[in-house]
Write a structure and sequence with these properties.
heterodimer; A: 281 residues; alpha/beta; Rossmann fold; 12 strands; B: alpha+beta; 2 domains; 4 strands
Chain lengths: 281, 362
Amino acid sequence: MREVPFALLDEQSKKEIRRAILKGVAIPGYQVPFASREMPIGRGWGTGGLQVTLALIGKEDTLKVIDQGADDSVNAINIKKLVQKTTGVETTSRTQDASIVQSRHRIPEVPLTKEQILVLQVPEPEPLRAIERSEYKTKRYHAEKEYSGAYLMLFEQIMRYNQTSQGADYPVLVNGRYVMNPSPIPRFDNPKIDSNEALILFGAGREKKIYAVPPYTNVQSLAFEDYPFVVEQFEGKICRETGLSNVFLDELTDEKTGETYYLCNDTSYMKEVLARKVAVK
Amino acid sequence: MAYVAVRGGAEAIEASLEHLQYERVKEGAYVAVETLQATMRGFLDQVMSESSLYSEQLAGLAMKQSEGNVEEAIFLLRAHRSTLPRLYYSTTTDARNMFVLRRISASFKDIPGGQILGASHDYLHRLLNFDLLQETAADVVAQKAEFEAIEVPDESELPLENLPKVMDYLRQEGLIREFPENDAEPSDITKESMAFPTNRSQRLQTLTRGQTGTVTSLGYAGLRGYGASHPTVGEVRVGWQSIHVAMDDEDDPYYIGAIKLTEVESFIPVNVDSEDKQVLEFDIGYGACFGQNETKAIAMSIVDHALETGGDTPIHDEEFVLLHVDTIESTGFISHLKMPHYVTFQSKLEQMRTIKKEGKSL
């Protein structure tokens, strides 16, 4: 009966989202409010990232979508299918071939380039929410660069456990100004944000915020001089298929032997390394 | 190959979607959207209100497509909304001009224009009517004909348009607390996200599209002890409200249709300092929503007043109320918990193990 517009959203909405993105790029780490449209996928299932992708995507783009490191997990497939259906763009699982990478909870192992944009889906954009539930107040804390709460939270964890207990979504300081949630990527991925060549955009659909880390921006994970930031340790563990040790690993159980083994979490990277191995043989 | 564990997503989704399609048709039964529109008024009204899209046809379609799942139907309509350009705003419409189908006041026994009960479930004994199990299309047609053959008595020549408001009667007497006229252009929460503190137009817009159950529960909490006081329903009116759109300021506005609207004004006594003494006056709590949704509109009037006046219980906290009443947002975030979280979980697991091993000794 009706035709769905290119990239689903009407042009006015896309324009508004692009304006929010530009403002985000101009103020790295600052959460720019935007109206946030309802998407055909669940609000909390990547609608922020999806809106950013839809507002930016053009016919020439090549899209990669990952969820938890995998290109063919249910949610990644679903988002990719929706974008493809409404735009007809090419999709890929090879990180190097993508111009836009939308991701949930991971930054790919293959380094990004300045030709690429990484769009991260964000469930909770506010790094101070755990210590202050009021948006009215947290907004003021950011304005005043009042981040003692964020440090106190980590300090309390250290007092209790002798180390921080913030797993993923470990807060970072962007360009020496704004404290930001990097989205629930593992701490392992935090250093990748620092001075990345690609533009990194963050979309929080339900919370109606967009923020950005432009290329080559200084991004540091919050830490103390005597308690430096540490990423997840996979000491002595390697990917069973590729033998790689310098990647984020998934922990799995062999159903036959009951043994625990590990696999490279970034599935497209794992496949690529495997293909290379086969070629060498 | 070991990594098959995470593969096969595309095929699995396709199969699941196909399964869903099958569930909709597996009984071999058919229902037309027109039939749903004609017989599911209550459902359509709730769905149109929560999706903030007024179209009985599209609500019927959403109902059919979602197999009567309210949350899904609203979702479909909201997502559809996002694909539509928004070109115009309607002009101000006054419920004084409503074509009234039902209008009652709990504040006075008799009100100017009369109490008009219209069609309501309120006076119904909620007993299952087992006859409906056997009802046929012919029965419906026959019953319709019977009703329509009834001669309408002369007294029913009541005016149903331009009925005076109960509130105006109290206002003339100076019993309503007066506020300066506020003709500020309303905000549009669908075009600009709210910042706190909010203005009233943002609050009313958020509440009117709020989840029926949530708004009702919050209103109930306000009434039961987490709010100021027991309001009296000044007036509930349900009827057809004309909507006009102006191309520019010069033109006469164009009539684009009428929507069914429920409007509620609740009277809430408040203490007011008046010159040398304290007096009691009434505040108005306001509720309005698409369709006939009387419980929601009344609850909305309670929450509206609670948010206007402030206090220390949750229903006075605008962030608590306004950030949690939306159907799409609450169901979306709750349901996202079904998505895989194994990366974040792995990150936590690694940390818990280290803490267990190296943690601080007490």
